[in-house]
Amino acid sequence: MYFKSTFVSTQLECAYKKGEVIFRSDNVSTISVLKDVLSKEATQKKIAVQMSHELDNRAIPHMLELIFPKLEDQVMLAKNVQLIDALQELKVHEQDTTFLSPHCQFILENAELMKEDFKQQPCMVDRLYAIITDLYMDWANFKGVSMKHKVPELLEILDTCNLNNLLEFFKS
To answer: How far is CA 42 from CA 12, 35, 169, in A?
Structure first.
């Protein structure tokens, strides 16, 4: 069986036969959730379960490259929405706004659409930050280390919205 995330476009493959199940995914967090749920269920039912995992170092860059365009778009949308009121105020007081940069003119022309898009997804940046933070924590957990102390640094890197810095952070 195959499953595909509609949000991030990651995939999960499930193969099973009597006494064995194999899960493969390009998302470390998906495997982490499955491992937690299966462990909990097995413990509740007092069933002995043997679990093993193999990590592919290409999984993290792949995942970040899938998520990053969404993050970039949402951060840009949030920044543009923050500028709308100031730009509209300027437009009220200035007859000619041709001195504005093309980007600012674009924001003015598309202000209502941007506000509507932002209103429909007000927590999207937070959700994407949470996905990336969970990915980092899950990766570290599979490697057997705790990296909670590095989460504030990760959040600072996410605020810069720079994929190369993010990839470097995950490598370290």
So the answer is: 21, 10, 35
Paired tokens of 58:
């290409």
Cα 98 to the chain's mean position, in Å?
37
Report d(CA 66, CA 49) in Å as an integer: 33
Structure tokens at 156: 């600072």
- 98/80 Cα distance (integer angstroms): 18
What is the C-alpha separation between 114 and 78, in angstroms, rounded?
9
Give the confidence band of 86 by pLDDT, cuts at 50, 70, 90.
very high
Q: Kindly indicate the confidence band of residue 57, based on its pLDDT and cuts at 50, 70 and 90.
A: confident
Please state, in angstroms and as integers, the Cα–Cα distance from residue 124 to each residue in 75, 91, 114, following that order: 9, 29, 14
CA 38-43-48 angle, to 5 degrees, is 85
Give CA–CA dist 136/158, Å, rounded: 12
Residue type, 80: N
Residue 52 pLDDT > 90: no
Residue 163 token pair: 């994929």
Among all chains, which residue has been given the structure tokens 């490598």? 171
Q: Work out the pLDDT band at 51, boundaries 50, 70, 90.
A: confident
